[in-house]
Amino acid sequence: MKKTKITTEKVNLHPRNKHRLGYDFEQLIQCCPDLKQFVFTNQYETQTIDFSNPEAVKLLNKALLVSEYEIHNWDIPKNYLCPPLPGRADYLHYIADLLTESNSGILPEGENIQGLDIGIGANCIYPIIGNTVYGWSFVGSDIDEKALQNCKAIIGQNEKLIDFISLQLQTEPRFIFKNIITPEDRFAFTICNPPFHASAMDAAIANIRKTNNLENTKSNQPLLNFGGQNTELWCDGGEIRFLTQMVYESAKFPMNCFWFTTLVSKKENLKSIYKTLQKVNAVSIKTIEMAQGQKTSRFVAWTFLSENQQKDWKF
Description:
The protein is of the alpha/beta class. Helices cover 35% and strands 16% of the residues. The protein has 10 helices and 9 strands. The protein has helices spanning 25-31, 54-69, 85-101, 125-134, 145-156, 200-215, 230-233, 238-250, 270-279, 307-312; strands at residues 40-41, 47-48, 114-118, 137-142, 165-169, 187-192, 257-263, 284-292, 295-303. Strands 5-4-3-6-7-9-8 form a 7-stranded mixed β-sheet, sandwiched between helices. A two-stranded antiparallel sheet has the order 1-2. Helix 1 packs across helix 2 (54-69) and helix 8 packs parallel to helix 9. The longest helix has 17 residues, at 85-101. It is globular. The model is unreliable at 1-7, 197-211 and 217-228 (pLDDT under 50).
């Protein structure tokens, strides 16, 4: 007897998110046959994978990128972060809403809308989604040359991306925007998933906790899916130091970007970020909350453009 596929809409995701209807594993396996070995039916009679298994998550991403974004050649090196696509897509969709509010209610699309991805990593996910869904162009920066080389390979193997994504190595790791933003640049937005932790030990402890939450078991070893390179997961001073540096640097490029944005993992850091933004005289500050399942995430956006300068900005 053929089972009826039950699809539950993920109403917490943004209305334009391609992943609101969950995963159609039959279709995804057609896109990536290697995924089949990791798919099973859980106690709720729903097909799923073990999200604590890094290889399963990577193959799920591969299948989704083929199915939803027409990206047929994508991979990441061992031990690099494998980001969940629904959450990454939500961040971009809410940025699109932010740009729409600043553009008389018209959603800006096309290659003239340029974003700057700070810390693009090895996966190139934000530019892939932003270009595929909205036609935006991107500059991706990182301090990790190996990560950028992998992004270069992804772009080169997917012809549709070649003219829309450029890469830039940050040669001075203590800086974020310096060396990346030039006087001629006009970015509609910046996007960033900053390192969360203050040390390698903090990152490892958090990884073990996250793995145990997924597996409902006790383990002392973090899994690779949540490992990542140190530059992806931690920096001296942790998230708050990184974001404070970002805010102060953004004030040096007030006319080069409409909206500076960044994810903020720890809600308790918001108060300090707001205080720093006030110090540098940000004209407008917004916090946008996003929900994926039981998890709530957020990003902060700020601009230095006056009301008249915002009206004069050409999207």
